[in-house]
Amino acid sequence: MSNFYKYFKENMSALGLPAPESLFGTVQTTVGTVTVLLGLIDKFGTRVTVAELIGAGTKLEKLGVVAACSAAFYAEAVIGSLAVATGRCLGNGTSLGDILVLAAKWGFRRPWLAALLHRLPGVYDPGVTSRKYYKHQEAVR
Question: How many Å apart are CA 85 and CA 93, to the nearest integer?
Fold first, then answer.
């Protein structure tokens, strides 16, 4: 999947979110980063912010630019972008069903994930025009 990071970063950038290559450069590092994020969300709850996770001594310092965003929103965006990038590398599109199957496959399934993805389809659908404002919407939620 030589274009994975290119597609991943493109989707994250369209959402106005950072995607440091050191955390998301390959499928494997992305899966590892999501696993860490979800573990912290499981521990601290879906309302924890990225800033609070950074303050908890995690290795997510490079995400400081989205510190006000909820960690659940950021994790959702990463999972959606992971699905989009792998879908594009494999030559097919990405639907909500594709993301939920991928989430189950990699152990990312959480009770709150489907509802968030349903509420914010622009995370995985580039046709949603308001997706660039999601970051701001989630920062004040």
Answer: 9
- If residue 18 lies in a helix (H) or strand (E), which one and from where to where? none
- The average confidence (pLDDT) of the chain is 84
How confident is the model at residue 131, as a pLDDT? 80
Strands (E), the chain: none
Chain centroid to Cα 98, Å, comes to 15
Res 69: pLDDT: 84
Dihedral sign for Cα 132, 74, 45, 105, please. Answer: positive
Contact at 8 Å (CB) between 72 and 52?
Answer: no
Helix or strand or coil: residue 113? helix
In this structure, is the dihedral angle defined by the CA atoms of residues 12, 14, 15 and 18, taken in order, positive or negative? positive
Query: What is the Cα–Cα distance from 21 to 25, expressed in whole angstroms?
Result: 4
pTM over 0.85: no
What are the Cα distances from residue 104, in Å, to 77, 83, 97, 107? 16, 12, 11, 5
Name the stretches of the chain with pLDDT < 50: 140
